[in-house]
Queue: 4 jobs
Job 1
Amino acid sequence: MKMSFRWFGEDADPVKLQQIRQLPGVNQIVGTLFDQPAGAAWPEAEIAALKQQVEAAGMKLEVIESVNIHEDIKLGRPSRDQYIANYITTIKRLAKYGIKVICYNFMPIFDWTRTDLFYRLPDGSTDLAFDHTQVQGSAQAMIAKAKAAHDEYPMPGWEPERLDDLATLFTAYEGVTEADLAENLRYFLAAIIPTCEAEGIKMAIHPDDPPQPLFGLPRIVKNRNDLDRIIHMVDSPMNGLTLCVGSLGEDPANDVPAIIREFVGLDRVPFVHARNLKRGANGDFHETAHASSAGSIDMYEIINTLTESGFDGYIRPDHGRMIWGETGRAGYGLYDRALGSQYLNGLIEACAKAAE
Ligand code: CS2
Ligand code: MN
């Protein structure tokens, strides 16, 4: 397994490459061009510069997270073909600079959704949390509520400057069913996978987070059956999954070790996100430190199952707590993800040696 660390770029990330470089056994950066809007063809010069920065710091750049999907592709609008053409251009340019895996998601309107970015844990640290009672009601009611509130920290995706766009987007999704969204994903994959095959790039779709429908929007990457449907939409080793332990694990009905065994066994998992969380009732949860003892997920079982299944792809710690007074991007500070990387490396070494 190749231990990696997500980094948002020199301007967007308070964490420095030189700091990541000092983590033992972390040799891979999961990079992105943070400023590129969904639908853009990524400029080659910026890809080249990112690669150069990472290599100058003594690490490798082989995974990109994320190349975001334009809403017109998810909605199946006629204009999607132009955005798909741009996506293909981006794939070719990334391949030219040695990228092997692209992590992406197919969630309408929002990426991950949390109701609290500063949930306080008993040890005084903070982490991300989800409380279903705060996301009840229609999209219209949610928008009205968000407009009336003057929160210092609105829910991610519900920032005041985005609310008018949100209303338009929600209208566009009226009547779009799960079957429609799945068909639009299939159309996208059918268009891009031949290029991925030619260029040697694996696509790795990220699960919906949380893995349940929200605000009446369709969700199609929630559980084992969804993943099974996706890998068969276009039956190619380049059409793969990001196995996000935390996202899938938020639903107690998901048997994450069984999902690992099945899809790693099929060689469809190029990328793993490893994090822990504590589940509450009704789909509620808060995130925790990575250790098994901190949350509901047995991380030893996760790493041991990956080892037994022969997983040799990229893995990274996922969201971390904010500890030791660190400020910055919630979920993506240095300290707790650094601890997570070392804990995971310990489990990986122990499981590998036990299997020898
Ligand atoms: C990530 C996602 O921060 C996170 O939760 O796992 O934002 C992920 O990068 C995207 O969904 C992938 O497109
Ligand atoms: Mn994830």
Job 2
Amino acid sequence: NDRTETLEFQAEARQLLQLMVHSIYSNKDVFLRELISNASDALDKLRLTAMLDKELAVDTDDLHIAIEVDRDARTLTVRDNGIGMTRDEVVSVIGTIAKSGTAELLRQLREAKDAGTSQELIGQFGVGFYAAFMVADQVELITRRAGEDGGTRWESDGAGTYTVTPIEDAPQGTAVTLHLKPADAEDNLHDYTAEWTIREIVKRYSDFIAHPIRMAVERPGSDGAEATTETVTINSMKALWARPRGEVEPAEYHEFYKHVSHDWSDPLETIHMRGEGTFEYEALLFIPSHAPLDLFSPQGRRGVQLYVKRVFIMDDCDALMPNYLRFVKGVVDAHDLSLNISREILQQDRQIRAVRRRLVKKVLATVKELKTAQPERYRTFWTEFGAAVKEGLIDDSDNQDVLLEILSVVSTHDEAELTDLAGYVGRMKDGQSDIYYATGENRATIENSPHMEAFRAKGYEVLLLTDPVDEVWVERVGSYDGRALRSVAKGQVDLDTEEERKEAESERERQRAEYADLLGWMGGVLADSVKEVRLSSRLTTSPACVVGDAQDITPTLEKMYRAMGH
Ligand code: ADP
Ligand code: MG
């Protein structure tokens, strides 16, 4: 075909494909899960688009996925009659990887020494469509976007380039055909053209897919009659969230999680709940076991999906989960909403707000429970998501108390272990009335700071806060358990008892008189840099330090603002 164009994969896509071709991932069966997952997404999208756009003349009565095999040609096709792709969509979504964090992932992969680590990293990323190249040496994709006339054929062997060709007669939707690697290839464990292999993989990974997955199977004729083929549905299509909790196996939850999250590893926690009464809903939520690479990038989020009576309505439904819990994945199926509901209306809807309040409470309660019952798992949670959760102390005053309970911080009390605020308060010294914290880039910088000297001398514990968000929440929260949160770097810190203070005051008077000339001279010399030069009571070994006024912003925050261009 002279209209065939040969194009190059984007550099990052090429590197990821290399990894697939060279079989970095040991469980190759999951390629089928990825293709079925994409097909299912495409069917959801078509149903939704047809619902919103009545002009679009498409038939949505028989949305399904078909798996076709040709044992002689050794091909396996996954076909859907979903939304399909335009030529430009094929080039932009299959030829490139838009996910933020790709470059960083690839750098880490290059550095990963052993195969185990690499698999873990790839697992965190989710390779999606490219997984096809684990089992195929040639992949062909034929697609036609719903509502468009012409279709597109895409072909590649997974090396540097692919071709795209316009075609006249493609059915609406997408068909991905894999030319399977030779059956005797040493690392090919399964024959992916065998009916039972396919059935088993679908059962294990994709049983809950809400659309029928069909396959033609051979039935031997009885008593010498001709063999017949028959098309059967090989998944149960049961919406997992609608089933009673006690009847769902953990493995089923895990596979469902992988489908909605596009993650390849198991979740840390599963939350399955049901709301009854005036507004019925079911929610199946997951806390992942690791943070996505784009947790802190503004574009990067894929949170909770909204369904209405089993029909997919939208991805990333921010009305259901606050930003600080953006890492929570899953599905909420609300029974009494209009299928046409828009994001804006959802944000205003009183019942949706009530659901959101309940979901948030449940997620936080789950974390709190984890903290007391399974400290190890909680630690994983906090290490991965703590920095995001702390944003809740700024945004979500309703849940401040429980957020302060699940909070963990590093402190001078222990080199290695995190502490919580209750632990700090429990260790406070007699006569200590405030909770002290220090902020900075990392533990070492803070500990070397002269501000710490007086506290060390006194034996007072200091919280060491190193996330940029810490500056903001400590200010916002102000106190815990009736005790003020006080920065070691701000204002006058009173560390002494009444008597010591009087003594020190007269001593300081004496010193002030003695050093008046020096201080006046230094104040003059440094006039452009500081507000005031004064004698310090806080230092024990350093000769001088710079302090902020109680109202001033702290150095870390100042740095943060400066970096942001203020
Ligand atoms: P993800 O599913 O995480 O987005 P994939 O690599 O699995 O990543 O797929 C990349 C993109 O390719 C999808 O987001 C979708 O836009 C497109 N795509 C893949 N398969 C299909 C399909 N069967 N029908 C329509 N679009 C598809
Ligand atoms: Mg996918």
Job 3
Amino acid sequence: MFTLAIVGRPNVGKSTLFNRLVGKRLALVDDQPGVTRDLREGEARLGDLRFTVIDTAGLEDARDDSLPARMRRLTERAVEMADICLFVVDARAGILPDDRVFAEILRRKNAHVILAANKAEGTAAEAGVLEAWELGLGEPLPLSAEHGEGLGDLFHVLTPLADAYAARAAAEEPEEPVTDLTVDAETDADLPAYRAPTPQRPLQVAVVGRPNAGKSTLINALIGEDRLLTGPEAGITRDAISVSFDWGGTPTRIFDTAGMRKKARVQDKVEKLSVADGLRAVKFAEVVVVLLDAAIPFEQQDLRIADLAEREGRAVVVAVNKWDAETDRQGKLRDLKEAFERLLPQLRGAPLVTVSALTGRGLDRLQDAVVKAHEVWNRRVPTARLNRWLADMTAAHPPPAPGGRRIRLRYMTQAKTRPPGFVVMCSHPDKLPASYTRYLVNGLRDDFDMPGTPIRLWMRSQS
Ligand code: GDP
Ligand code: GDP
């Protein structure tokens, strides 16, 4: 168990996030004398994580000056009480002077900081998320507390920390500070190299698909019949049921939504609810396996979930199940590939693997594809190579010149991984047509071998 403090200036969404993490499990307000009385504390749940969360919201009522001394003092107090600070900024408002005051407090206190850019739903917030890099606190995690988006990413960031705190508690070494656990504090120039999954940090996979596509059969084939039926680890979570196992030598944690689907069936809202469950699983996964039934592939629901996985920034592998029942396999495969390209252009190049969950055929190839997709999702391209590439791309096909002034793409760097995200310094980014951005994204995909992963590309003006 660890303690997380949510800090940040008023109105960025701290309470909204607190309420989302804690729900109705709000602890009684601490009655100790002194300042703690003003801090709300609750027991948070996120996936199978449990931790204590401290909220510093509601302190802004004392409106003495721009950042009341009281709020500053309470924030410092919360930081001292917490193991980890979730520093929230407002991606819509951008970075304000008060945000820098908080960043300074956190730096001075030497706090372990996770930076979150809230209100990040929709495209209006993209610039703000990017701007948050300027705080020098590492990669901003886009969140939408109100819409519940980005919580899967928060879960991924917190999981290794939670494991470390649990290990530390077990080892009874409370005086040992956790110093080597910087949370992907990557800067533009220094993204981490690919780290292969470990038993502590398994590759997180979700299997999603329509009812009867064969999800349960597949998961049972992978982990062995009994484990799923006799109650997987972390079965208590309300978000998704997960099981950890060794998949062809790779520590893997797989999320299953079948249990919830069964419940949904009772409620006779199968379609609607299973999409919601799939969505939940997608949020917790790094790689999403979209499982199709070969007999009825690419139905509306399959497309919706694949698209959602892409929008959530997950790596996607399409698995076509029940291949054992197909007779004209060659013709079928041709049709499938054609339909895939036509219906899901945003997932161009994503692997399509034919499997039989029933006989076990193709499951090795599925595993290969999942590991490869994970690796690509973590891909890092050196800045020097990117800029040589950008020069070639703009020479081969120059950007347009609206009003006679050519848009210049000057410089490019990779700002993030998981999925790969790139920033291009550009004159008049607002005038650059979407077709040109697509040209660059497709080029990145082909030239740096990044099939099947969402690629983010931001145009930023140099000012
Ligand atoms: P706090 O002062 O930091 O605790 O902020 P609140 O949680 O009270 O939120 C301030 C305002 O931002 C409220 O009107 C919320 O509804 C809104 N808000 C919170 N989270 C989000 C979000 O993810 N997206 C958007 N658009 N608004 C949000
Ligand atoms: P879920 O609803 O996605 O979890 O699907 P199930 O795993 O419950 O499978 C639905 C039905 O499809 C069951 O009758 C399975 O036996 C059948 N099924 C699953 N995988 C295969 C397969 O690879 N080949 C064939 N022929 N049938 C399968």
Job 4
Amino acid sequence: ILSSVGLSLGAVGKAQSGAAPPAPTPLLVAADLRPGTDLSGPWHYSVDPYRAGLAGFHGGEPNASERRWADIDVGATMRKGDGAMFEFDMDSAPITTLPASWLTHAAEMRYYQGLVWYQRHFQAALQNGKRVFLRLGAANYKTRIYLNGTPVGEHEGGFTPFAFEVTKLLRNGDNQITIGVDSAVTDTSVPPPVTDWENYGGITRSIRLIETADTYVDDAWVRLTRNGALAIDAHLDGPRAAGRSIRFFIPALGLSRAGTTDANGNWRTTIAAPRALERWSPERPRLYDVAIEAGDDRWRDQIGFRTIETRGSEILLNGRPIFLRGISLHEEELGVSPARVITPAAARALLTEAKHELHANFVRLAHYPHDETMVRAADALGLLVWSEVPVYWRISWGNPDTLATARRMIAENILRDRNRASIAIWSIANETPITDARNGFLTTLAADVRRLDDTRLVSAALLTERSTANGHPVMTMTDPLAAQLDVMGINTYNGWYGDDRLADVPAIEWRVPADKPLIFSELGADAKAGFHDARAMPQKFSEEYQADYYRQTLAMAAKIPNLRGLSPWILKDFRSPRRQNAFQQGWNRKGLMSETGQHKLAFDVLTGFYRGKEDGGR
Ligand code: GCB
């Protein structure tokens, strides 16, 4: 699999690297279901706008006598007086509750972008033969971790998990953990500094110590292949990983298979799918308890089995054509002051609106990997998922470090979520202007996705150009990247941005390749909930205008032969600092609901359309 996928697709330009994408280690797949110690709760925090904690006294690199305060067990060494800086005193710094973005810690943190230090103590009881990993579900954007004064590791990227082994650094009894999170995004980061969403700095997802046996299942991928077999890949990590007995189970199917790992700790097997296996679908989201045992380690997950593929311009779920009745959402909980805390209840609240109010069968989790809780909720509720990385707008396409960051992010996302039946589409980019450098960058990402997961579809939200012909508007998509995608995504805002009148929208002609499925990955218009305009031509930002926009755009969509779904923008109003007019006041108002969940008129328009599609309608 490692050889040639990207390079042979050459129509667009060459992939910048044919090597395998870097896999994060340790991976700890399905870590959220492993036993461990939860470190969420009260933490001290301290802002560090000059990043002094990383520097010497005069800035720059610290010299030998000027150890960075962050490298030091602050409480203990300050008492010994060994030269530690006394400008930071975490033990008496203010306290907040993690996980949560710092935007809500204090009023003055609202627009802070930079470095914040967090610290807390916890008790540990060391056990022989056990390994311990510190795992963060995500921290935005750059993270540095210290345990008992020793640097543990660093991570870049705000939306994917990472873990470090801390077995040898843990002390029996009291331990001190310090985490520096820097939210600053730069021209070379992923995403870049200008986006249309709030840059929620901080530790926004779970913080846990995960305990495993000395040799444990680090990675496992259990899926239904397109030719109807259950395929299982497992990887053990630890001193006894090679030549180890391993066993796979699905108790509800009475299925069990034993084997032995190879010299690298890998085991792979395929099993004909049992007759009794129920396929996962939005209508019947059947999940099975799955386990893998190796020595004294037991790995478990809950997994659904289904196939997703394309045939011509159709998208097939379990072999049958499906229309994706979607909605987009950001990772932002309902409420007047979201802190990007996605608890299982918050995820359910959002996805239940999509599933049971809107009659959706599909969600676009924009514009970055969402909390694992969200994807698990989609698995359980029965919603197909478009999952993406924040390769958004103006990325530094020519910068090899930026490419390396994006590739690692894609790998972290796919390896975290390959076992989720809900995920149907991996998307590699959103609205990225076409250049040779960009084409090469995205070719590399598309090839990475196919190497890591050959069971799902690859997509991207592509840009279009507007022209006119015989007096009607024409939208054309000529992006060469389309040749490498299974599904083309297009964001359309005709009738909102630009000069098209709403009445002209249904007549728009779409010129896009017809040989593969197209989905409108976005469409939308702002409305302030409760702002009404009953005139025949309602003004923008009224609920009536937004509802009309949906009616006209859906009429337009009905005329596109290969349109196989849509994920309008967006379920709920979301915070965006670039939206400051009187209706917006810091919020993008394209939600079908307000930030507190009040439905706007357009919600019902889309619900009506989706109910019509539910009965097999196209
Ligand atoms: C887009 C972007 C999305 C924005 C949206 C808008 O095309 O992909 O991130 O929020 O338009 O509201 O303009």
